[in-house]
Amino acid sequence: MSEESREMTLPLDSDGFLRRECSTCEREFKWYVSRDAEGEPVPVGGYYCPYCAIQAPSDRWFTPAQVELARNTVVRPASMIRTAR
Questions:
Q1: Residue 79 phi/psi, 5° resolution?
Q2: Where are the alpha helices (DSSP H) in 3-75?
Q3: In the chain, N or C: fewer CB atoms in 10 Å?
Q4: Measured distance between the N- and C-terminal CA atoms of the chain, rounded to whole angstroms
């Protein structure tokens, strides 16, 4: 079985911010994407919500719109490949 890899970019607003959502309090906030920070390790245990101060791993900050974008970009095309065989 072969594996396929896909990349996906998330859109930034006009000021260079990425929307994030806390999985605990479900509040959205803006996250500044700095080119200087690229490649820096994620803090042990993940990041903290600026509103409720709960820590979560880096894969728990996606907004519902970002999850839907990922499904449309990665999951659905992959399922179409499987059914086309």
A1: -70, -30
A2: 64-70
A3: N
A4: 13
The CA distance from 55 to 1, in Å, is 37
| Cα 7 from Cα 46, distance rounded (Å) | 22
In a domain, 53, yes or no: yes
CA distances for 59 relative to 17, 46, 85, angstroms: 17, 9, 32
Residue in the structure block whose two tokens are 């719109």? 65
pTM over 0.85, yes/no: no
In which domain, by residue range, is 51 found? Answer: 17-38+46-84
Q: What pLDDT sits at residue 36?
A: 64
Residue-wise pLDDT tens digits, 25-68? 999 999 987 766 667 788 899 999 999 999 999 889 999 999 99
Q: 61 lies in a domain?
A: yes
